[in-house]
Amino acid sequence: MKFAVIVFPGSNCDMDLYYAIKDGIKEQVELVSYKETSLDGYDGILIPGGFSYGDYLRSGAIASHAPIIEEVKRFADLGKPILGICNGFQILTEIGLLPGTLINNRQNRFICEDVELIVKNEATTFTNKYKKNESITLPVAHGEGRYYCDNKTLQELKENNQIIFEYTSDINGSVGRIAGITNKKKNVLGMMPHPERAIELILGSKDGLKLFQSMIENMKIEVQS
Ligand SMILES: NC(=O)CC[C@H](N)C(=O)O
């Protein structure tokens, strides 16, 4: 199994993700430039956190026009797994692979802290090593992390079980305390908290590890079938 971590100008969690895969689940991983136009040979795509293009215009807005994006969309259409964390989540909403958007935190400042989340849907490629409603702790570090969508979209997210992670308290004003969602097909996950920064206890939590373990297990099953 081989993962690609897509690197944009201003990505700054790319190496965290790289090591989460290399050392956390001991699988192959390569950094792939935003200038590339092919993702052939990769089984999973990871879009890291950071400040792509300095978050100018809106976080993720300029990255959504990068050369690699058409290929990310093609990969999603094929049903292959894509995980976007923080700025990665912002990019996934900008390119329309996930509904809604991320806007300034209600408190209008950057927040950086460990937060408690509930795993609302454990029956996905990304979460099936967790228990339903399991409480986990992951760090957040964002200024534009407030998930927003209209009521109709929120209803659809609920009906299709697309809400994957929910904050236990209202940390930034997100609609429905949403911390992470998937697309309808459930092969694209976007989340604001950082599982790649919580893969060993020395980092304060290893609650993020099961996410990568779930992904790899399901990717292997998919390839065998
Ligand atoms: N850690 C990150 O990805 C930062 C996210 C982002 N660009 C923000 O501040 O909203």
Key features of this structure:
225 residues, alpha/beta, Rossmann fold, binds glutamine
Describe this structure in words.
InterPro entries: Class_I_gatase-like (IPR029062), PRibForGlyAmidine_synth_PurQ (IPR010075). Part of the FGAM synthase complex composed of 1 PurL, 1 PurQ and 2 PurS subunits. It is globular and about 40 Å long. It has one domain (2-223): Class I glutamine amidotransferase (GATase) domain (Rossmann fold, 3-Layer(aba) Sandwich), CATH 3.40.50.880. α1 links the parallel β1 and β2 (28-33). It is 24% helix and 25% strand. The mean pLDDT is 96. It has five helices and eleven strands. It has helices at 14-24, 69-77, 87-94, 151-159, 209-224, and strands at residues 2-7, 28-33, 44-47, 82-85, 101-103, 111-119, 135-142, 146-148, 163-167, 178-182, 188-191. The chain is an alpha/beta fold and 225 residues long. A nine-stranded mixed beta sheet has the order 2-1-3-4-11-10-9-6-7, with helices on both faces. A two-stranded antiparallel sheet has the order 5-8. The protein starts with a strand and ends with a helix. The protein binds glutamine. The site of glutamine has 14 residues, from β7.
